[in-house]
Specification:
This protein is an alpha/beta fold and about 725 residues long. Helices cover about 35% and strands about 25% of the residues. The protein has 24 helices and 31 strands. The strands form five sheets. Strands 25-26-27-24-28-29-30-31 form an eight-stranded mixed β-sheet, with helices on one face.
Length: about 725
Amino acid sequence: MKQILQHLGSGETHLSEIPSPKVRENHLLIETTRSLVSSGTERMLVEFGKANWIDKARQQPEKVRMVLDKVKADGLMPTIDAVRHKLDQPLPMGYCNVGRILEVGDGVAGFAIGDRVASNGKHAEIVCVPRNLCAKIPDLVGDEEAAFTVVGAIALQGIRLLQPTLGEAVVVTGLGLIGLMTVQLLKAHGCRVLGLDYDPAKLTLAEIFGADVLNLAQNPDPLDAAMAFSRGRGVDAVIITASTKSNEPVHQAALMCRKRGRIVLVGVTGLELSRADFYEKELSFQVSCSYGPGRYDPQYEECGQDYPFGLVRWTEQRNFEAVLDMLADRRLDVGPLISHRIPFDTALAAYDLISSGTPSLGIILQYPASKESSTKRLSIRTVTLSQEPHSITASDPVVGCIGAGNYATQVLLPAFKSAGAGLHSVASSTGVSAAHAGRKFGFAEATSDGRSVIDSVLTNTIVIATRHDSHARLVCDSLKAGKHVFVEKPLAITREDLDAIIQLYQSVCADKKNSSPLLMVGFNRRFSPQIVEMKRLLVSIEQPKTFIMTVNAGHIPPEHWTQDRQIGGGRIIGEGCHFVDLLRFLVGSPVTTVQALMMGSSNHAIVRDDKVVISMKFENGSTGTIHYLANGHKSFPKERLEVFSTGRVLQLDNFRRLTGFGWPGFRKMNLWRQDKGNAACVAAFVDAIRQGGPSPIPFHELVEVTRTTFDIMDSLA
């Protein structure tokens, strides 16, 4: 299928061929008939993409601070690599979609195959959208009209925050798509409306919709106009739907308002507020968040957990429904807002249009009626990228990768390519990241069907880089298929999943004997050159040693999937396993005892098990302490390891500086750029396959480390 993607680095838009997505739990799979290009919002994205690095930085000063902190912690080159990687990602365009349901995911009620729905889906022939971001379209509403649903919901949410009453005088600043729909909705509320803009065509439309207007291009005094409009009293409220870097719209709104007036910002403006503007009149100011309650809440959007109707009357989905009802009742007229209709096959013309400055408003993309059956189109979940076949032999690793997120594309895939592994297929749930990674790294095909990667006779090695809850299942499926497996940590997030892997692996090894598949977890730190040097130094000392590991893990919001025990396993199981493995490797002896303490409760700490002190004792008498802390500062080094033994000390600072104190013949080992052993870890795995040797990390150590993380969590309970 085809989808419109923007390259963040260059701003160029492409109509790309990507695999059709698979339906997911709590989602709907929709075949698009119409979508709307918002000339204001999408022009902003295009202009940002085309800006140079300096201009991008000026537009996002908060990101600049994050970059500077990363430079201090990780060094210049890793930071540059991270920024380049971020700007290399494809950005799916669009958020106003109309189509018919092709498939209904598990856990979805109230929708059926064939239903027409409006959603915030992208500009693509087939989209997979969360059920709470979809709404059924009434029979009286056409597809073109329904394409304005999401834009209308943005306008409606601003009005709900404003809480207008019958007869109030309201100013709307900025008469783009959202502004013109705001005018109509305010009129439906019984308000008197004054619209401000520079474009005569938009002002004419606002007049048609019943508003008084003021042409700012003629340099009138907006304050005088607002006072005259409000009979000298000051307007009751202002909704700002403009897009500008200037602070003037907010300042102007404050001057226009009466005492205790209300200002709601729906658009994007400068936000340097003057206290004097607001203080004397006791004005209220609020920023509207997109379509309404539920936006950016993963439990609502991704997991399908609706808010109670009696407590949250208007969610984003119910705002969609309200807009559709008004379209059906002809209280909203969006026909005059359509400036262009463009066939989807030539959709890039829409972006040429908005980039050129040609006057436009609502641009409708028309999708052709499918010449193929929907079933056949859904089956096209694999896109061929290269015709060059990879030879398959027992000693020649050919990779199928499941997962194409940031870590896979920034770390794992470059490492496998550098190691000389064949790259055959790459999968991601939506297909977008898989197609991008496939083209970038030279895969033969990209797919949205992970199972097909495992089943393919053209791969013998599976790389798993998905969310943590799927690791154990994919490991088992891959081992059953007789494939070598490299799984990014963790190996499993529950004891039951780990037991299933152990049982299956032992069974496979018993059946295969000398040709059993290799199983590797991406515990890369033990392969770092500085860790290898530490191991060389420490192995000569037989006496027990003391290890102190400090991890400045950084804050992750409690709603992030890694914090979800059912999906990410929590941060100790999901990331802390790295440091348990690192100490296990350096000690060279099994863990015998584990104890852990977490930070005490406070009003500010919703998540406490990411602020933990872990104590471990090993069979050889050594001890290790891991301070895993998410309450530090980003500019402080992320990882520091200290080892004490027989009057000697080794200190590793963030995998860049290794210093020895009291070591004969060793003082320091510094690296120009950070090296956590990622490439060496992958190379060791690839070499083991080629040479027919054992896995670089023994299976019993993988199990021991994983079980230790479970014991840590039990100790915290």
